[in-house]
Design a protein that fits this description.
Number of helices: 4
Oligomer: single chain
Radius of gyration: 15 Å
CATH topology: Leucine Aminopeptidase, subunit E, domain 1
CATH superfamily: Leucine Aminopeptidase, subunit E, domain 1
Strand content: 15-25%
Order of helices and strands: EEHEEHEHHE
Largest sheet: 6 strands, mixed
Number of domains: 1
Strand order of the largest sheet: 1-6-5-2-4-3
Length: 138
Amino acid sequence: MQLSKNNASTSCDYRVLIGNEISLIDSISSDDQSLLENFLKLDKDSADVKSLDSSILLVKSNKNKEKMRKAGAAFRTSLDKDVKKIGVNGSEEDLYPFIEGFMLASYQFIKYFKDRAKKAFKLTDIYVGSNILDNSIT
């Protein structure tokens, strides 16, 4: 699995938008921006939006890093194992714990299984939006 700084909406199987009323994401489309704004008015911590051409997880930003880690882990467990690319957009303080929880939940000990190729997650790339500093991710 590779973590890359890139426009998180480029040909991803799944996209994640993390935000709050104060810090909306600048690097997303106006449609995604309005979708996030409408979601933030609801009394939910996350919502899954699926359409014919895309799947988006909307996550309400939280200052509690452990809750953001749990949101990342919950996303990994709900994600289909055949998804190859995801894109994540949000503020730097939200992205780090979310991705950390996601990657920790991605661990698999399948070395000795006969059908390990079937069980293995297919995820190859995580694209992180442009809100991250240039020297944060290599």
